[in-house]
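2024-03-11 09:14:02 DEBUG pipeline.ingest accepted 1 chain
2024-03-11 09:14:02 DEBUG pipeline.ingest length=381
2024-03-11 09:14:03 DEBUG pipeline.predict start
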Amino acid sequence: MSELAALTEQLVSIPSHDDETAAGDAITAWLRAETDATVERDALGNVIAYRHGEDADRSDADIASDADRPLLALVGHHDVVPPAEQQTTDEDIEGAYVVERRDGRIYGRGSADMKGAVAACLLAFRDASVPAGRDLAVASFVGEETGGEGARHAIDEGFVPDYALIAEGSTNYSKSGVTDVAVAHKGRRASTLVATGASAHASEPAAGENAIYRACDAVEVVRDLDTPKTTVFGEQITGSVVVTEFHGGYTWNVIPDRCTVTIDERTVPDVRADLSQAADRAGVEWVVEQDLPPMGCSDDAFAAAALEATRAVHDERGLDAPAHVVKPHATDAGWLAAAGTACVVSGPSEPGEAHTETESVSIDVLERCRAAYTRLAETTW
């Protein structure tokens, strides 16, 4: 059994959809047993460890605050979405997680998203020969599945590396059989248009103010907005603005005094749809409930180095060359990029694997990612 597969299975077996403590404990214990790095566990449960380059003559505790030495971080998260019934030993999904290995893959909740990738990051962090003049961190956050609360807390506490590889899925994006490097991803802004009016009997519509009509006027504004789009490293990334829910009225003979419209917006770096225009309509308010930021890599040399490290690993294995791609989903890279970190996303998960009842990850792809992470950690740019 490979060390990486065994560590992946250990992490996947630990329930972490409701409480990430035990998974964080396991990661912390592994780092302390396998490395001499300084390992930190913050109040929310994020685990962050630091190593310095071979020329550094100082304590690891100084690394996080040393602005003179670039810091590269390998980043993942150890929380997961709730499992399906068949992914636990109990019908109420509160039992131990079921982990299976077959046909070269590891099955179980969190195998693809993203405990396998966390295991690959941990081993790369341990094994890499960090070049002189740079330091290395590995971070596993909590709360990624609930809006990035772990990443935001870590950033607020001062964790803003110069560079970060977020090990979320990028496998089979440009073509089958390759693990690509995403230089951008979309964000998500979830918002609601709230239209208010005045109720009246439906037989006397002029006596009231129909909130549904006001909401429809606002929706027309949304439909006429330009679709946000931009280009990152030659890759076009196009967002979207879509009405997904419409709720108004409560009985057939009353003019409605309230109507709500839910909007799903996929944002792109530096460009937003001007949804505030919809709130210019009479009786309409625009309320933002969630805003997960997009990511666009801010450093050409780092993006090139990440792709070259990944390409070299593919070449060694006789695989097709990976490419720079755009990822459609938000990740913790968005929060780090907004704080000033140059980010890329590259990891073993394939489209259609995360959050499913049959979630799994390829052991060969895990090993490929581990090698690519190690190579990047040893690269200068």
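2024-03-11 09:14:41 DEBUG pipeline.report The first helix runs from residue 3 to 12.
2024-03-11 09:14:41 DEBUG pipeline.predict end
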